[in-house]
């Protein structure tokens, strides 16, 4: 007891000291770590933002270059490109109309001009060409001084900032008599760098001479030129202590995109957080003394209870081992006991949940195994399932399937209860799995009321050795059940294969082998090979059953080339004289009926099978191959494609109708498909195949179509249209409308009114 009181006093002192030290250290550490982490993350974020800005600029000028390349293909432009060619008035009209279309298709372009060096004439999209002639002479002179074939000039013309993009034409000829001048308005840099905002820092662009090309933000050019430009020229990555700088390496036109912000603005929040932490630390330090004094007594009562629980547990174990029962004392209920009991219940529930998961895992594996027995393992998705759930399939080596059937199961139902039959089935499954694990690897699953299906994979060996091992495994299962169960089983054995793509074929063969129980009798191992193969000839180059499976897979995959390749394998039978023609003709008919009936099950409408008279007219393998390609594969693939198109068409009609009806709402593909009861992947694929558009593309087109209707038939304002069509503002709506339609909404409404007036 004295030891506990001493420890209690020590604990109070230690807790007070540790609380104070930890809180202060926490505040300082959080500030340092947060500042460093924030600097790194902010630099990454702004570099990413600058990279996007750089990509936008590059993409913008590539768009201009592409438009210019298309422009210079005009016959009139080709004629103007020659200094000795006279100017054609009609051709010049065509040139100016094309330049006007270029201007409307490009954002932030005020004017496009074409200057002919030999004649000194300027052709502009602005009709007052002569008024602009003198203004552009300064631009043309500045461009000629650069000696380049393309340049972006940032000049001051008549006290007005002017930005022009100049390119010599034709681009790919040595004689270049034309200059294409694209006049950009100052909104171009506003869109690229953003509007000035001191709180968000300053974005800037340095030109190829490392002079300030443009800047947007609170910092003036003097600070940028004195603090930032020297830093970039020297290649340093850190600015002065009071500035944060991030910039990219030179890119398009050898420009450098950068960003800078004062550190006191950048770290304003973290500085406030630091002050708050230290304030809280002081408050907590004061509270720690009071809380520690009040909580120490309860803490030690809980600690004593925990010690007593441990002591009681140890005493109980000791009493049990010595044969003397110990009566535990009933502890007084308190908060600690409540928490302790709650934790115990949570632990018990967790253990129970883990056990239930362990119980469900075999059922999941069995379900997946049964599905693979029906279709084989062909896709990467199937192989991923085998790996994820650790199914012992698709491993290297030979494998065979076993179909185990309980003999006279109906009579067992009258002799034993359902519980007895359940344990019998569990015992059979355990016996099969144990034999499989002894011989190699594989698994077993219930395959009906009285049947089990198992796959046994053996290490790589000679085919005869693998065949013998599988039969021995079947005999071991049969003999064990005969000696230790009150009934017997019959076991069908498939052929030996190496490719798990034909797992379904092997399972079908094992079931077919059981049908020979009528001849072989019960309590027998029945290999399918003992009852005749596909041919008596040892020269058979392939398995017809596997060929059927391959062709069916290709047809369902809508792959004509793959299906034709499999059908061409029939030509390998030519020259094998040990094959009887009646047997081969029967196999070809069976193959055809198998394809028709297997595909017909997945169609919504019945599929008419071919007339037998057609088959009697086929006398060679070449004729059979051609018939299978045209009358079987092409027709079946066509039916499946038609079924697929119908499904896509119906889904697209539902989805587009829903979008058109709800295009004034904030809709998403997921919400639309959920309302219509369609899978999201189906809706996405239907829009792509039927309308060659994504969901966003179609929604945009639907909203633009509704906007056109409003512009033609109502007096609704542009602001109201933008709001109803889920745009943040009218500017964004107008810019999008112009990009899609080719003109602003106001111009579209005006043109339609004039058109109706003329009519």
TrEMBL record:
Query: HTH araC/xylS-type domain spans which residues?
Result: 653-751
Query: Which residues span the membrane?
Result: 12-34
A matching Pfam family = GGDEF_2
PROSITE patterns in UniProt = GGDEF, HTH_ARAC_FAMILY_1, HTH_ARAC_FAMILY_2
Q: Does the keyword Transmembrane apply?
A: yes
Q: Which domain of life is it from?
A: Bacteria
Keywords associated with the record: DNA-binding, Membrane, Transcription, Transcription regulation, Transmembrane, Transmembrane helix
What InterPro entries does its record include?
A: CdaR_GGDEF, GGDEF_dom, Homeodomain-like_sf, HTH_AraC, HTH_AraC-typ_CS, Rev_trsase/Diguanyl_cyclase
Database matches in Gene3D superfamilies: 3.30.70.270, Homeodomain-like
Which residues belong to any copy of the GGDEF domain? 397-530
Protein name, per record: Helix-turn-helix domain-containing protein
């Amino acid at each position: 007891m004295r030891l506990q009181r001493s420890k209690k006093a020590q604990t109070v002192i230690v807790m007070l000291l540790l609380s104070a030290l930890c809180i202060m250290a926490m505040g300082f550490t959080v500030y340092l770590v947060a500042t460093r982490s924030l600097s790194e993350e902010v630099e990454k974020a702004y570099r990413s933002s600058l990279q996007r800005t750089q990509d936008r600029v590059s993409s913008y000028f590539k768009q201009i270059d592409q438009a210019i390349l298309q422009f210079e293909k005009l016959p009139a432009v080709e004629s103007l490109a020659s200094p000795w060619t006279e100017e054609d008035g009609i051709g010049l009209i065509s040139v100016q109309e094309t330049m006007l279309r270029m201007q409307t298709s490009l954002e932030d372009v005020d004017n496009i001009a074409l200057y002919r060096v030999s004649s000194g004439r300027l052709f502009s999209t602005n009709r007052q060409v002569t008024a602009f002639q003198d203004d552009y002479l300064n631009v043309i002179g500045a461009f000629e001084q650069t000696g380049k074939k393309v340049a972006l000039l940032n000049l001051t013309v008549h006290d007005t900032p002017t930005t022009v993009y100049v390119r010599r034409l034709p681009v790919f000829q040595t004689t270049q008599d034309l200059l294409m001048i694209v006049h950009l308005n100052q909104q171009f840099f506003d869109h690229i760098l953003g509007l000035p905002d001191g709180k968000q820092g300053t974005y800037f662009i340095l030109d190829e001479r490392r002079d300030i090309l443009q800047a947007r933000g609170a910092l003036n050019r003097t600070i940028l030129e004195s603090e930032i430009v020297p830093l970039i020229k020297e290649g340093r990555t850190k600015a002065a202590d009071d500035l944060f700088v991030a910039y990219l390496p030179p890119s398009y036109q050898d420009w450098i995109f950068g960003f800078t912000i004062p550190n006191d603005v950048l770290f304003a929040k973290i500085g406030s957080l630091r002050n708050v932490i230290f304030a809280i630390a002081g408050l907590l330090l004061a509270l720690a003394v009071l809380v520690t004094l009040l909580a120490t007594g309860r803490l030690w009562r809980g600690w004593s209870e925990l010690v007593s629980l441990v002591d009681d547990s140890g005493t109980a174990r000791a009493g049990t081992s010595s044969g003397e029962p110990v009566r535990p004392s009933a502890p007084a209920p308190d908060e600690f006991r409540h928490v302790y009991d709650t934790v115990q219940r949570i632990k018990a529930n967790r253990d129970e949940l883990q056990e239930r998961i362990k119980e469900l895992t075999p059922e999941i594996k069995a379900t997946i195994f049964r599905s693979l027995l029906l279709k084989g393992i062909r896709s990467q998705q199937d192989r991923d399932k085998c790996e994820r759930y650790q199914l012992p399939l698709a491993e290297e080596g030979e494998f065979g399937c076993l179909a185990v059937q309980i003999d006279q199961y109906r009579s067992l139902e009258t002799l034993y209860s359902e519980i007895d039959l359940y344990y019998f089935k569990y015992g059979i499954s355990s016996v099969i799995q144990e034999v499989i694990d002894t011989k190699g690897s594989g698994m077993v699953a219930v395959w009906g009321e009285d049947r089990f299906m198992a796959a046994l994979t053996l290490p790589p060996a000679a085919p005869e050795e693998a065949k013998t091992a599988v039969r021995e495994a079947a005999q071991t299962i049969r003999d064990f059940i005969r000696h230790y169960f009150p009934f017997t089983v019959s076991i069908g054995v498939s052929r030996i294969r190496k490719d798990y793509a034909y797992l379904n074929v092997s399972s079908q063969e094992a079931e077919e082998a059981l049908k020979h129980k009528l001849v072989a009798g019960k309590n027998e191992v029945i290999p399918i090979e003992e009852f005749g193969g596909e041919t008596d000839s040892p020269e058979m180059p392939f398995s017809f059953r596997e060929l059927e499976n391959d062709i069916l897979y290709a047809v369902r995959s809508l792959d004509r080339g793959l299906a034709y390749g499999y059908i061409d394998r029939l030509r390998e039978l030519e020259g094998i004289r040990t094959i009887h023609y009646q047997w081969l003709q029967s196999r070809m008919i069976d193959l055809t009926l198998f394809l028709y009936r297997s595909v017909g099950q997945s169609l919504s409408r019945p599929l008419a099978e071919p007339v037998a008279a057609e088959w009697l007219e086929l006398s060679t393998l070449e004729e059979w191959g051609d018939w299978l390609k045209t009358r079987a594969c092409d027709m079946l693939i066509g039916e499946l494609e038609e079924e697929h198109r119908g499904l896509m068409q119906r889904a697209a009609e539902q989805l587009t109708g829903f979008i058109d009806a709800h295009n004034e709402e904030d809709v998403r593909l997921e919400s639309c498909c959920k309302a219509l009861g369609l899978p999201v992947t189906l809706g996405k694929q239907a829009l792509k195949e039927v309308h060659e558009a994504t969901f966003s593309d179609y929604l945009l087109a639907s909203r633009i179509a509704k906007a056109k209707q409003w512009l033609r038939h109502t007096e609704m304002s542009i602001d109201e249209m933008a709001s109803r069509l889920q745009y943040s503002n009218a500017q964004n709506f107008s810019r999008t409308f112009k990009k899609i339609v080719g003109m602003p909404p106001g111009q579209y409404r005006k043109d339609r009114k004039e058109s109706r007036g003329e009519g």
